[in-house]
Amino acid sequence: MKPPPSVHLRPPGVIPSAARDPLGVPAVARGGRRSCAALLSLVLASSCSRKPSPGPPDAPLFREAAAQTGLRFHHFTGSTGQYYMPEIMGAGVAVFDYDNDGDLDVYLVQGTMLDSSRQPAAAKFPPPPDWKPGNRLFRNELNPSGQLRFTDVTAPAGVGHVGYGMGVSAGDYNNDGHPDLYVTNFGPNVLYRNNGDGAFTDVTRQAGVDDPRWSASAAFLDYDRDGRLDLYVTNYLDFTIRGNKQCFDSAGERDYCTPSVYRPAPDRLFRNQGNGRFEDVTVRAGIGKAVGPGLGVLAADFNADGFTDIYVANDGAANLLWINQRDGTFLESALMSGAAYSADGIARAGMGVTAGDMDGDGDDDLLVTNLAREGSTLYRNDGRGNFTDATMELGLHTPTFASTGFGVGWFDYDNDGRLDLFAANGGVTIVEAQRGEPYPFRQRNQVFHNQGTGRLRETTGQAGQALAAMEISRGAAFGDIDNDGDLDIVVSNNNGPARLLLNQTGARRHWLLVRLEGVRSNRDGAGARVTVLRDGEPPLVRRAHTDGSYLTSNDIRVHFGLGDRPAVRAIVVQWPDGSKERWQQSETNHPVRLKQGTGTTE
Amino acid sequence: MRSISLAISLLLLGCSRPPPPPEFPRLALDRLAPHIREQLEKAHQLALARPEDAVANGTLGMTLHAYEQHRAAAVCYRRARHFAPKQFSWVYYLGTVQAAIGNNTEAVAALREALRLDPEYLPAQVKLAETLLGLGEVAESRRLYEVALEKHPDFAAAHYGLARARSAQGNAAAGVQHFRRACELAPNFAAAHYALALAYQKTGETARAREHMALYQKDPLAAPPAQDPALDQVRALNTGPSHYLKKGLALEAAGRVAEAAAEHERALRIDPKIQQAHLNLITLYGRLNQPQQAWEHYNTLLELNPNLAESHYNYGVMLFGLERYREAGQAFERAVEAAPRYAEAHNNLGHVLERQGRLEQAMRHYRAAIENKPNYRLAHFHLGRLLLHQKRNAEAIAHFLETLTPEDEQTPGFLYGLGAAYGRTGDRPNALRYLTAAREKAAALGQKQLVASIERDLGILEGRP
User: Fold this and answer.
1) Residue A600 pLDDT more than 80?
2) Is residue B8's pLDDT more than 70?
3) Is the pLDDT confidence value at A17 over 70?
4) H or E segment and range at residue A148
5) What is the pLDDT of residue A51?
């Protein structure tokens, strides 16, 4: 049999213990009994039923506070003028509570010189004078000091990997109550096991989760319902420094290549064996049946069968929807489910991805960020895992058309109970208006308010100076950084400073923050679906996850905005192992911890 | 009193005067390709020399537009419109570039204005309808598509657009009706087939859904030709190499190989260093049985970029086609050396090694191909054959099973292999099952030789004389 034909002809490129309960918050009791006395011992400034903070009515939606709080980090691309693709793609960020003191710490991923024969000072964009190589971990000092302040604890923590960093995912893979970190690179990836004493250990080799390819986003998920977090790693392209290609834009100027000029690299699925080791089950699970240039990934139960599925955003190729077959294998189903392409059947440059119940019908809808002149794609779920491209109808096509989106998240910024949207934008090819500048890729981030009428309205203009900057944003991690009840965002910028966007709006309304503790399920409760029931209001459904966005890991706590109707009748949790429990809950405006086995079984 | 009247008259005159045109856009041309820079500089100089000449301003806009410099083009078109407000082309072009950069509100305004100047220009009607749809103005978009169809009932693109609008309004049945009509009018309209497939999927008509999805997948980018004489004038200004490369690719896809090669050569006359053009020409000249020309482009490419794995690969494929197997193997070796994860190069190298009787080495490369592309059916098939040869039947079958999806013209051959493997293991029911399936699919595809081979083996299995 003859070998396959030559490469497809293409034009030139214009061609991702039992731990101490840190909050001192008892699990919400069965039958609605609570202990306010226990709550009074909280380290945090919270109470049984704290009122929302009033705040000035006309304050901008967000306030940028990175430098002010000590979160000083500048991403270094290592660019030498050769337009190596990894330079323009990174990097990511994680928000997670590494020391279990009840506040979110921040891990930022760093680049390095791709040409190892040269020093950073010789780079096209040298780093700032006080720059240090390697990823950084910043500890949040909110607890116990009460002040939002970050301290660089990279050295004692031992997580300052020096490599060409791309993304990071946090997850407690060994169920010891301490979140671990998986760092992806252009090059070998790293698994850091959290020792629980402020330090981490690199256990990549022992765990068997290395992948030397160009990896992007990763997701911890429990796909086989054995109570242990497995790991999905997207791989992007078969790019090598040696094989770097020259690409040009439509006006013939040298530019970064599009992914179509390189071959895609296969993703990986690692099954957690429970003994500190993972097994590569990519082929056995069927994941090898489709290969694409993966950048974004998240895990959710899209067809409501109780098993976690996986969605992968591929860059310039069909997105993938891996439907869990409940037997350890997956079936790729994006095409016929409507989630592979945009409405016109064209592959978009899928980078970031987020899933959430944006239309309040109880299932997870998808949003994928794409290139400028494509617009983001919003896939509305019918509850059975069939999707419709509803971008235009929901008013998102035009406002996202001019932006190249990366990090993205559904999040309720004003706590009105509806999921809003934030997109971190930044070009990958020359932005026409900046032609002639040294690094012409800057764009503005965007925020959209969910009107509840079936439309999303851009409210970037109300966000204040925080969203006025034109930068090259990549990762966006969502979480309540200052523990005031509304969701904040940490944004990582390519060749630029990290940004901390503190929400100044949401805390005016009622909210609930749920921390799950799995017992038969994974310790984090990752993959659980949490429903808040209120009289006279539709159910609010959210999922516990750290995945999604781009190269990013989010707060595992499940946030609910409750608007002006704080009375919660019950919280129902569908755990990743398939079991369901209910808690009676009437108090709000503070975090709650729900431990598997302490609710009423449904 | 008279002075007050005069003042009022002057004030009113000032209010009715149109605003001044925007300043010329700032053009950063230094780093552009030389011939594009020259072309733009010439148009720019002409416009600067005649700042109030609508044609000079508009031509600069068109040249920028041709090279996708839409923001700068928009400024020039606004200037041209200022000096010639009744000229359809400037305001139409302005609408199209505003849409291209996502300024849909401005695009709608310009397109409406263009249609006031020429109400019958169909591409402008469709563009306006499409832009309104992008803005979420579904009802207005629908109305415009319906108006277009009143005069042009067989306009496939309008049926497609109307289908999208109706579907967005929640009328799935009307959406299906118009998607179907678009497909009937333009059988290669990929986007319409795609949309229709998904519409059928939602209504549970899965057979029809699969039928239209298969039609879409034949060529996902295929669409009825966009007939827009005004925009054709803009496109004609793009004389850059990528223009010729695109033409060459389209010709290659249509099977017009010699013409495809000619367009690629044209691109190289403009810029001799375009690596993709040289790369494609290796393949094209191979297919034209002109190995010398292929070799020349291969050598040029080696000078431009010695690490380009695809150049070795394409050259190797050409040599293999000429049955120069040893040289082909050397080329594939260079390809995997340049790109160790190049699955296709590993597969091809394995095939050459297999021909040379170096089976263990061949298997290593087939495995490498699979490691880097787990869904690589051909590599699974080749490895399966060699494993079968070594009587490692269970492993062979595992690899043959990986070849069954997706279904295409290679599937009958893969099913044949699987059936044969089961036959070797003595699993007669599975052997019969897969051989029968192979024969049916081969027959459906008109693969007569394969059918004959399968028939022979089936005969043996069934004990027929």
Assistant:
1) yes
2) no
3) no
4) none
5) 66
Q: Which of A12, A248, A263 sits opposite B342 (nearest CB)?
A: A263
Q: How far is CA B25 from CA B29, B34, B36, B80, B269, in A?
A: 12, 20, 17, 13, 31
Contact B378 A432 (CB under 8 A): no
Q: Per-residue DSSP letters for A489-554? A: EEEEETTSB-EEEEESSGGGSEEEEEEEE-SSS-TT-TT-EEEEE-TTSPPEEEE--S--BTT-B-
Q: Determine the Cα–Cα distance for residues B322 and B167; give it in Å rounded to an integer.
A: 53
- Of B459, B453, B397, give the one whose Cα is nearest residue B424: B397
Query: In this structure, what token pair is assigned to residue A381?
Result: 């779920």
Strand, helix or coil for residue A405: strand
Alpha carbon of A398: minimum distance to chain B alpha carbons (Å): 6
Query: Tokens in use for B418?
Result: 């699987």
Please state, in angstroms and rounded to a whole number, the distance separating the CA atoms of residues B142 and B74. 27
Contact A301, A529 (CB under 8 A): yes
Gap between the Cα atoms of A127 and A116, Å rounded = 16
Provide the chain A residues 315-334 that lie in CB contact (below 8 A) with chain B: none
In sequence order, which residues have a C-beta less than 8 Å from that of residue B89 and are 6 or more positions away?
Answer: B58, B230, B233
Alpha-carbon dihedral A494, A500, A504, A507, rounded to 10 degrees: 120
Instruction: Note if the bond before A144 is cis, omega within 30 degrees.
Output: yes
Average the pLDDT over B385-408 and give the result. Answer: 93
Contact A12, B242 (CB under 8 A): yes
Question: Per the structure block, which two tokens stand in for B166?
Answer: 């109706």
Question: Which pTM value belongs to this model?
Answer: 0.93
| Closest listed residue to residue A265, CA positions, set A214, A189, A311, A314 | A214
Q: Look at residues A440, A429, A15 and name the one whose alpha carbon lies nearest to residue A245.
A: A15
pLDDT at A507: 79
Give the residue from B407, B465, B404, B409 showing the smallest Cα distance to B434: B404
Q: Are strands A456-458 and A470-471 parallel, antiparallel or unpaired?
A: unpaired
- Selection from A493, A497, A501, A470 nearest residue A130 by Cα: A497
> How many residues appear in chain A?
602
pLDDT tens per residue across span B264-310: 999 999 999 999 999 999 999 999 999 999 999 999 999 999 999 99
Mutate which of A1, A6, A331, A435 to test chain B, going by most B C-beta atoms within 10 A? Answer: A6
Range in A516-525, B70-79, B234-243 with the lowest mean pLDDT? B234-243
- At B2, is the pLDDT very low, low, confident or very high (cuts 50, 70, 90)? low
pLDDT at B242: 86
Answer whether A491's CB lies under 8 Å from A476's CB: yes
In A159-272 the beta strands, taken as DSSP E runs, fall at 165-171, 180-185, 187-194, 200-202, 215-221, 230-235, 247-248, 254-255, 268-272
Q: Is the pLDDT of residue B352 over 50?
A: yes
Please count the other Cβ atoms lying within 10 Å of the Cβ belonging to residue B52: 10
- Give the integer Cα–Cα distance in Å for B376 and B403: 8
Flag whether residue B171 sits within 8 Å of chain A, measured between CB atoms: no
Distance from CA of A257 to the nearest CA of B (A): 12
Task: Collapse the DSSP code of A194 into the 3-class scheme (helix H, G, I; strand E, B; otherwise coil) and give the result.
Answer: strand
Alpha carbon B271 to chain centroid, angstroms: 23
Q: Is B14 on the interface with A (CB under 8 A)?
A: no
Q: What is the pLDDT of residue B7?
A: 53
